[in-house]
Structures are given as structure tokens and as C-alpha cells.
Amino acid sequence: MELPWAEPFKIKMVENIYKSTREEREKWIAEADYNLFNLESRKVFIDLLTDSGTGAMSDKQWSEIMTGDESYAGSASFEKLKNTVQELTGFKYFLPTHQGRAAENVLFSVLVKEGMIIPGNAHFDTTKGHIEFRKAHAVDCTIDEAFDIENMHPFKGNIDLEKLENVYQKHPKEQIPFCLITVTCNTSGGQPVSMENIKAVRELSEKYGIPVYFDAARYAENAWFIKQREESQKDKSVREIIKEMFSYGDGMTMSSKKDGLVNIGGFIALNKEEVFQVASNFTIIYEGFVSYGGMAGRDMAALSQGLQESSEESYLESRVGQVEYLGNKLIEMGIPVQKPIGGHAVFVDAKTFLPNVAKEEYIAQTLAIELYKEAGIRGVEIGTLLADRDPESRENRYPRLELLRLAIPRRTYTNNHMDFIASALKNVYDRRKEITSGYEITWEAPIMRHFTVKLKKV
Ligand code: F0G
After folding, report:
1. How high is the pLDDT of residue 188?
2. If DSSP codes are grouped into helix, strand and coil, which group holds residue 324?
3. Candidates 72, 133, 398, 451; catalytic one
4. Is the Cα dihedral 382, 384, 388, 393 positive or negative?
5. 137: annotated active-site residue
6. Which of 215, 250, 299, 388 is catalytic?
7. Are strands 179-182 and 212-215 parallel, antiparallel or unpaired?
């Protein structure tokens, strides 16, 4: 018999979590104005709000915490991290930042000016935020297959080359500072980008004289998918794949809270000296001196170790395997999810799940609340609340897909938790016909409303 995968680690420390009653949860979610961001974590049994900064560090990472060098300049922990990043990615220059959006802030301060266009594959919210804040525009060039949840395309994070070339033909190259490839593509469901596509984007961009940067938050998971799904890549090691992926870019921003396997941190890695020099100045202003950029020495040391661990194939097999395990359970139960299953999360199609809730009543949020009430599981709405209002008309923007994202923290929950999540969602699915109404807004902020919105039952 072929042996199944198993976690390449054993558990050394545990944190108890409280399994509440339905009565308690009904009360708590009402007190939280039906916004899951307002819930204290002690009121959550299984927390799938995000995979960002919520994972477990290894014993080796914790020992790095104890030996971190806290020197302001010339810290050994900085040197260690810089060397790890250079060795893994092949980029020449390195700047630490306190998290991913800070890396975006520093890099975009150098490269993005008012009126510019940044094409890419479904930019993440903070990335788009940093682009739009500078009065520039993010143009989504993701392939259309990404929006059809039943389509089994193996690389639904890919960039549509025709859409990209249209952008390149429509605007002068001075107006396009770079093309941004997000690996894996969070917004389209943790979906990977193929090596072939990355290479083709590079070649096309080179033809038009436009640089290519990566939003690399989940680059190791992307490399794992390339090894599994791309015939020409299957004999390469994940590390070789990572190096080759980045060889087609001019630089990267990183949220270390994902594939860095740490709770906080970020960085920029680059090839162009001119960009590095200006970015260094912005790092000093916004983040701290270039040898720590908002991170403690111990945090840089733990990140260096985390980057080594996240590119180990046995780790990636169990990491992506666990997310797939949950996804396959849901598929077996007939629950509609984005397919194939992504690297860091399962995305449930709330519109198909709850056909009797009107789109004006926030379908994916309604499902998120039902799942919380059912079993104390906290997912996150990727739907109309997140899509926010049109800045001009102030009307709700209704996205093509209403999704409930169940993001799986790294090395944190067991497959029993996955079984529990699947059973809870199945219970909600079995009574879906009785769920006929959703929620209305009683208060919202002018932008980024989903974090603080207050709701009441319709
Ligand atoms: N890029 C991607 C693709 C992300 O998913 C995130 C964060 C960031 C950049 C920003 O990084 O949080 O370190 O500032 N994603 C989290 C999530 C918040 O829940 O998906 P950050």
C-alpha cells in the first residue's frame, strides 16, 4: 500500500481552546454586531479568519528567539536573514520591514506615482490600497477560468497574456512601473501561477521594457503546486523551483506572516541597486534602520529559520495536503467550493450554498455567521462587505463571487479539527433552505468597512 502523507513534526506544546455552547455564541455574535472581527478570540473554537501570522513556530525557531542579536546596526540576526533570503531567492539586495504591507509601502514609495497603471493577477487588498492611495490603478489580468469555481484549471492564478499585452499597448511604458505577480493568488482562492506563465509574463514584459515584481507571501506553496502540477517541473526540487520563479523577476515584497512561518515580519528583495538605494531611505523613514526595518533581532533570526523550514518538501506536502483534505471532505458532502483547492484556504461559494438569501443582505457574511453559531468556527467574508462601495456613486459593489474563506493556519490544527469543520458546515448545508434572510448595515466606516462594520438581522 502506498503510504499517505503525515505531518513531519510532533507536538511539543499545546494551547487549550474553549468549545462554547450555541447559546453563548448566539449572545456573543449579537454583542459583536454580527461582525466576526469584533469577536474576542477566546470566544472562537477554531479560528480560520486568516493564515497570516497565526501559525506555530518550531523548536528551532524558538531557540533562535533566545539567541537573536538585538544590536541596532550590524546585527548577526540581520546577516543571517539576509543570507537566507539571498540564497533562497537569488535576489541581490534585501530590506526588512515589519510586515507585507509595509514592504509594499516602501517599494511603492519608490516606484508608483499618480496616474500609473499596475497590471497583475488580482492584487491583494492592501496592495491595491497602496496603489490607489497613490492615485494609481491596479488592473486585474487574471485568467477568466479563475472566476468559474467548477473549472479545474491547475493554475487559476495565471495572468492572461492577452489582457496584459492590451495594458502594455494602451499605455506608454513610463506609466507602467511594473507588472505584479502574486504567488499564490490569494484573491482568486490561493490559486497558483505556473512556471510557464511566470516565464511568459517575463518575456512579454521585457519586450515592452517593463519590470516584473512578485507579491511573494505564499511563494513556497506556489512552488509546491508547480512541482505537483507542471509536467516539465516535476523532477526539480522545490528550492530549484523557487529560485527559477524569482529569476524571472526584478524583486519581491514579502509578508513573512505566511510562508515565513512567523507571527510578524516582512521584507523586500531586489536586483536593481538604484531602487534599493531609494528604498533604503524610505525604510529608514517608515520602518527603522535598514538592519532591522521594524523587526526585533530575535524575530529576524526566527524568520531566517522559518524560511528554511517552509521550503522543505515534507512540510509543504502536509501543509497543502491538510487544506486539500478539508476541501475534499466538503466536496464529498456536496458543498460548493472553489476548485481545485487552494494552498492556504478553502473558499466556499456562498451564493450557491445559500440560494435564498438576497445579495443585498450579504450572503457570504450570513454564511460566516451561521458557521460561527453552529460550531464556534470563525471564517472570513470575501464578498460584498469586503468589496465595499463605489467611491463615486457610494453604491454597494457586488463582486462576481460571494465567498466564505476558511484559511488554515500553518502547523496549528489537526485533521480532527478539519473533520469537525466539515461536519459543522454540513449541518449548516442541511438546513440551508431554512436560511432565507441575511443582515443589514447599521454603521460602517467610509473605507475598509468590513473590519468595523456593524450589522443587524433583517
Ligand atoms: N499580499 C498578500 C497576497 C496577502 O495575502 C497579504 C495579507 C499581504 C500581501 C499583506 O501582508 O498582512 O503582512 O501586511 N494577507 C492576510 C490575509 C491579511 O488574511 O490574507 P501583511
Report:
1. 85
2. helix
3. 72
4. positive
5. no
6. 215
7. parallel
Question: Nearest residue CA, atom 19 of ligand 1?
Answer: 50
**Averaged over 136-150, what is the pLDDT?**
94
Strand order in the sheet with 251-255: 93-97, 266-270, 251-255, 212-215, 179-182, 117-120, 137-140
The Cα–Cα gap between 250 and 272 comes to 7
Residues composing the chain: 458
Residue nearest to atom 8 of ligand 1 (CA): 100
- Cβ-in-10-Å burial (0-12, 13-18, 19+) of 66 comes to exposed
Task: Summarize pLDDT for 200-223 with one digit per residue, the tens.
Answer: 999 999 999 999 999 999 999 999
Q: Who wins on pLDDT, 387 or 282?
A: 282
Sign of CA pseudo-dihedral 202, 208, 213, 215: negative
By most ligand atoms within 8 Å of CB, the mutation choice from 48, 118, 123, 124 for ligand 1 is: 124
C-alpha 25/C-alpha 353 separation (Å) is 22
Residue 447 has pLDDT above 90, yes or no: no
Catalogue the E-assigned strands of 48-161.
93-97, 117-120, 137-140
The tens digit of pLDDT for each residue in 4-39 reads 999 999 999 999 999 999 999 999 999 999 999 999
- For residue 147, the SS3 value is helix
**Please, are residues 443 and 453 in contact by the beta-carbon 8 Å criterion?**
yes
Rounded CA-CA distance 199/194 in Å is 9
* pLDDT tens digits, one per residue of 156-208: 999 999 999 999 999 999 999 999 999 999 988 999 999 999 999 999 999 99
What nine digits make up the cell of 255? 509578508
Contact residues for 150 (Cβ-Cβ < 8 A; gap 6+): 339
Does the annotation count 258 as an active-site position?
yes
Q: Is the CB of 260 under 6 A from ligand 1?
A: no
Distance in angstroms (rounded) separating the CA atoms of residues 118 and 418: 38
Q: Say how far apart CA 421 and CA 424 lie, in whole Å.
A: 5
Quote the pLDDT of residue 206. Answer: 98
